[in-house]
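Section 4.2 – Deliverable D4.2 (structural model, holo form)

The reporting period included a commitment to supply a predicted holo structure for the target in complex with zinc ion. Inputs used:
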Amino acid sequence: MALVVQPNVPEAVATFLTGYDGNFEFLTSMKARYTAGHGLSEGMVSAIQRCIVRADEQEQAKAPDPDGIDLFTLPEGKSFHAIPTREGGMHIVRVDRPKQGNWVGWVFLKQEPVHDPKNGGRQQVGGTYTGRMRGAASRISRNWLASCKRYGTTVGKCGLCNRRLSVADARTGMGKSCLKRAEDLYASNRET
Ligand SMILES: [Zn+2]
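Output (structure tokens):
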């Protein structure tokens, strides 16, 4: 399932770099180097891996969602997300926000490829998320666009339409028309 864009760069490092939007100079220069198609030395890779561990620790230390986790800002229909684990792996999460039928207003999470309906948790109409995947749900709700693009760079498929991505689109993590739609929606969520 892994998409190896450049052979010597581990997937977690590639994903972290392409999704990096901070201003730490070392990481912005590594991101520029990587996205330009250059390789990274082993020393660079291990320095980036140390940054990933630190970023994860900072993420965990943040105050946990005092008002609950709201997933209703995500796109309607299905979307797919990748959330890095502390062990260096990746959880793949499918989110369903039904567009029609009896479940409009609800949001459902499922961990892929496990299809246990009890496993992923849900959000009722007007409520907040309840379930066993609080960590992943929290990270998705804070920045669903980033987790959706991370799915693309990790799996090589678009996180919105689930079509296979070209090599160029796999670097940004989403197909061009879906990216435009996702960025517009994400920006409008932030304004309201
Ligand atoms: Zn797409």
